[in-house]
């Protein structure tokens, strides 16, 4: 059975956990035979999943596109999915909506929660796309908060999250891992590219609300990129918070991607951004102050980060967390026994 997960050339924290977690949990069942693929951590259930193989799904999420062709058929062993939204998309029974596979790091002795007395500092991890145009490292420096790049080594990053007093999370797996190692976390949004759908999918699985703090963009370039996302189909943030609202938005977006004008729109929007808006955005000098503002973008972002550290933090209920982890561990045993 071969692992299937998203691989960013620069690295991406949540996805990279796949590279070592499953081998630790289920040693001896992995190889490079693509006739049987295992989908674990990530929002990766989509049409790219090929039909000419068997699939085992464990804690994965959907929401970025259409469901895989033939999902639920004889070649699909769906052990569990990330949350109720993914289960609804795939027409699965609610009991298969367990939670994200990253919870299973608690099965490993070296990643147990750290005593409160040994924790220190506040850390912030942005979504990996926020690094393409933002300057969140400088914003963190100005705010007195430790910046953690989602491109850093996943085990080192996990250990830093374990030892933090508070995690400010734009990257969803920063929140998932913080919750798993029992560190309070605050959700934030750096751009309209952050997927409300996938956050709701996970938070609902843990009986948690999702009310993120919207941060101002840290550079004029990031602001222009965020506001341009709708042109090429990458705007993923919305205000509605119920399963019904989220599903209606998902269905509407899916219908739109099937329309005759979708491909020309994305191509035109991408071209406008690449050849006009991107060069214009990067013509602003470093430290440029937007009209009507008394502070640079990065200073406003730093101020918002400082305020976020004072906001109410989140942590799933111990009883619910323990029951969810126990359920996932029992499913790991089932997979090991089958393969």
Query: Which class best fits the helix and strand makeup?
Result: alpha/beta
Per DSSP, the total helix count is 12
Mean pLDDT: 92
**Proportion of residues in β-strands:** 5-15%
Low-confidence stretches: none
- Rounded radius of gyration (Å): 20 Å
Q: In words, what does this structure look like?
A:
This protein has helices at residues 13-16, 18-25, 84-89, 136-143, 154-162, 172-180, 196-205, 220-228, 243-257, 262-281, 297-308, 318-338; strands spanning 2-4, 36-39, 54-60, 76-81, 122-125, 146-147, 166-169, 185-189, 213-214. The chain has 339 residues and is α/β, with parallel strands linked by helices. Helix 4 (136-143) links the parallel strand 5 and strand 6 (146-147).
SSE diagram, text form:
Elements: E1 2-4, H1 13-16, H2 18-25, E2 36-39, E3 54-60, E4 76-81, H3 84-89, E5 122-125, H4 136-143, E6 146-147, H5 154-162, E7 166-169, H6 172-180, E8 185-189, H7 196-205, E9 213-214, H8 220-228, H9 243-257, H10 262-281, H11 297-308, H12 318-338
Sum up the structure in keywords.
alpha/beta, five-stranded parallel sheet, four-stranded parallel sheet, globular
Compact description:
With 339 residues, this protein is of the alpha/beta class.
């Amino acid at each position: 059975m071969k692992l299937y997960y998203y691989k960013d050339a620069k690295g991406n924290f949540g996805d990279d956990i796949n590279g070592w977690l499953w081998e630790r949990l289920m040693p001896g069942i992995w190889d490079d035979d693509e006739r049987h693929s295992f989908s674990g951590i990530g929002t990766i259930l989509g049409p790219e999943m090929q039909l000419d193989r068997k699939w085992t799904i464990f804690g994965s999420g959907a929401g970025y596109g259409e469901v895989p062709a033939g999902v639920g058929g004889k070649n699909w062993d769906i052990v569990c999915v990330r949350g109720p939204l993914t289960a609804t998309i795939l027409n699965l029974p609610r009991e298969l909506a367990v939670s994200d596979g990253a919870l299973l790091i608690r099965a490993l002795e070296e990643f147990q929660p750290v005593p409160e007395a040994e924790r220190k500092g506040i850390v912030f991890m942005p979504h990996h796309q926020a690094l393409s145009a933002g300057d969140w490292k400088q914003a963190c420096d100005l705010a007195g908060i430790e910046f953690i790049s989602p491109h850093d080594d996943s085990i080192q990053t996990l250990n830093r999250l374990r030892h933090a007093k508070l995690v400010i999370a734009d990257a969803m797996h920063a929140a998932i891992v913080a919750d798993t190692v029992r560190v309070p976390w605050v959700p934030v949004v750096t751009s309209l590219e952050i997927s409300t759908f996938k956050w709701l999918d996970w938070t609902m699985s843990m009986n948690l609300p999702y009310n993120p703090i919207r941060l101002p963009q840290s550079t004029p370039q990031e602001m222009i990129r965020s506001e341009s996302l709708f042109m090429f189909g990458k705007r993923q943030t919305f205000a509605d918070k119920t399963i019904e609202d989220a599903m209606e938005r998902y269905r509407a977006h899916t219908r739109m991607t099937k329309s005759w004008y979708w491909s020309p729109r994305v191509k035109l929007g991408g071209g406008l951004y690449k050849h006009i808006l991107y060069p214009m955005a990067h013509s602003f000098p470093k430290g440029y102050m937007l009209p009507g503002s008394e502070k640079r973008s990065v200073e406003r972002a730093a101020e918002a980060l400082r305020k976020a550290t004072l906001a109410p933090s989140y942590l799933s209920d111990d009883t619910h967390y323990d029951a969810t982890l126990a359920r996932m561990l029992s499913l790991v045993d089932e997979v090991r026994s089958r393969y």
